[in-house]
Give the backbone structure.
Amino acid sequence: MDKIVSLCKRRGFLFQSSEIYGGVQGFWDYGPLGVDLKRNLKEAWWQDMICGHNELKQPAGAPSTYEMVGLDCTIIMHPQVWKNSGHYDLFHDHMVDCRESKKRYRFDQVRGREVTYQDRTIFVSTLAEAEQEEDDIRRRGMKFFKLRNKDADKITVGGESITIDKLDNTDNVLGPDAKTLGTLTEPREFNLMFKTTLGALGGEDDVTFLRPETAQGIFVNFKNVLDSSRVKVPFGIGQVGKSFRNEITPRNFTFRSREFEQMEIEFFCQPDQSQDWYRYWRDRRMNWYLSLGMGSESLIMREHDPEELAHYSVGTADIEYAFPFLPPGEFGELEGIAHRGDFDLRSHMEGKLDPATNPMTVELNEHGKPKYRGSGKDLTYRDEATNQKFIPHVIEPSAGADRGVLAFLCEAYTEDQQPDEKGNLQTRTVMKLHPRLAPVKAAVFPLVKKDGMPEIAQDLYGELKKHFNVFYDDKGAVGRRYRRQDEAGTPYCITIDGDTVSDQTVTIRDRDSLEQIRVKLDDVVDTLTKKIDG
Ligand code: ATP
């Protein structure tokens, strides 16, 4: 992971936000290469899920044909949205404060192990990543027992690594930044939504939130979309946009950020077909990652156990990736696919439903009135063919663009041995990004800066720029230029050499196979288009 993080910074994929001021935790900026990688991921999603979807053809595994449309909603919405969505009451994590370090941690994310010296055992907790965990625990355990390096073998680090929420109490716990035991408070609830105020007065009534998910904008526009387009159930609405969560322990690079982007679909269908649609979307989304070059061994589909599900849901599955910062065998969520029943549309219509009731009824306050008022708008759907009126059920594939980028970066990072110009084997770092995702599609090199080569190369570069993001480089040995492009994930390098001047052909070198083919100058655009689109 350290190598990936350092390559991301060195080559301009990702920077820490406000770095010159020491950075701000949980916020990340995308550099010149990163911004294109992320755009390409979002565009691939938009193309494959929304605008490239053919509503006239029934896809394999789908119960019928269906339509897809897009939407772009605001980040700040009416505060009532978050009350009826459940985020206002339920969107919280348990956190503990450290009385000594004054830091705050998420209860289920602080890990640790037992450390024993002579006949005393304490529990040392840490936020270190899996690879450094044991070393950090040992180092802090020794410090606690005031031992020197030469006495390292006098302590034992035992037991399994577990999170502190699994302990009976935290009296014997050394907090991640503490020097004394038992400094962690009891866990408390903490709402993850960022609060903000509307207008200049800033009274309690003006309080609202930065959206913690893009989904709610889709639900509250359900009627608008139905009334303004000709879509019929089953259909989906997709949206890509920023979401904000005040995560207590943002970490693992961009995996848990406070500002991030989501790519979400709310798919509306007949209740009695919802199980089939759920299965369709679950498999479709898994295959999408595989089609963009994710290795099948790095990805798992984890179906939630029935007891983890709300009773109105027939299923939720997470697509998880083996992020290298996790211990071997562990996976982190990339995307969740949830069957949400009619919970969201009914809550926005009638008032927040109580998910614990069966069938669900509106949650009441102490006066027997709805705890949160609904919009009162009719969000039912009338099927013109059957004249049947119903509230559609919803399947929600919800993906994170930043987690997607991180997973594809991790998957792409490869070190191999390749011969240099003199035939000696050298370690090469290559980002094997799928050509659709690669920030730069091709680099153009004149072999030398003379004999008419730069002129041809610059003309070709200008022509290619009309179609793709390409890069021109005439500096240094050609081998060095290849290496730089390999690190940036550029799939093709085009070299203009002595033969080009006489026969109007160029070489195209493939980043992964290193195979070089000779192509006519006039055919370069077509050849690249075919290669990139596969
Ligand atoms: P987690 O359990 O990891 O906090 P979640 O189950 O709360 O995630 P969802 O609410 O299902 O996540 O959000 C859908 C997707 O949005 C996630 O699969 C993930 O890709 C992305 N996402 C959620 N929270 C974050 C975050 N803090 N930083 C980056 N991406 C996130």
The first helix runs from residue 2 to 10. Residues 213, 245, 247, 256-257, 260, 262, 333-336, 398-400, 402-403 surround adenosine-5'-triphosphate (CB under 6 Å). The CA atoms of residues 380 and 391 lie 5 Å apart.
